[in-house]
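INFO batch 0412 | record 1 of 1 | parsing
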Amino acid sequence: MILEYSFQTIEKPIIDIILKEKGSKFISYAFPVEDEEAVKKRLEEIKNLHPKATHHCYAFRLGVNGENYRANDDGEPSGSAGLPIYNQLLAHNITQVLVVVVRYYGGTKLGVGGLVKIYKESAKEVLSFANLVTQELSATIRLIFNYSDQSSVYQIVNKHHLEIVEVQNQEKIKLVIKVSQEKYLIFLELFKSLLNVKVL
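INFO prediction complete | emitting C-alpha cells
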C-alpha cells in the first residue's frame, strides 16, 4: 500500500452559485471541511439560510483518500442528487470538501434523468469557481531542553524552516514543532540525536 502524505482540497468556501431548470432554482455551495462535525455545522447553516427550500442535497469526502464519504438525496429520488454531487468530488479528485445544492421546487417535475443532470451541473459549476490547493499532512514533535542547548535545537528548526507551534520558557524550554508527516521520522531521529534534548 502506498502511503499518501498530501491531498487536494479547495482553498475557501464558494457560495450562492445559482442554476435554474424548468422553474426550479438550484443554489450550490462548496466548503473546505476538517471533519464530520464541520460538515454538520455547515449543513445547519445552509438549512437556516434556506428554511423554505424543498431539498438540501449534499455530498462530502473526508480523509486523505476520501475514505469517509456520504451522499444524501434529502427526499429526491434515490441516487438522483447526492450521488451526482459526490461524483463531481471524485472527478475533481478533491477531499475534505462538502458540496450542498439547495433546491426550490418550481412546479415542474424534472424526472430522475433531469435531476441527475442538474445536480451534476450545479456541483460542477460551484467547483469551477474553487481554487484547488494541495495540503500536506503534518505531525508534531514535542521537545524539552535546557537553555544551554537551545542553539542546537534552533539550528535544526531554522535550517529546515520548521514551524514552531508552541514555546514555553520555564525552568527548561518546551517546544512543539510542526513537520510534514512524510519527514516526521527523519526529524524525530535528528532531534533524538541531540544530547540533553528530550523528545516526548
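INFO post-check: The domain at 6-134 is CATH 3.30.230.30 (Ribosomal Protein S5; domain 2).
INFO record closed
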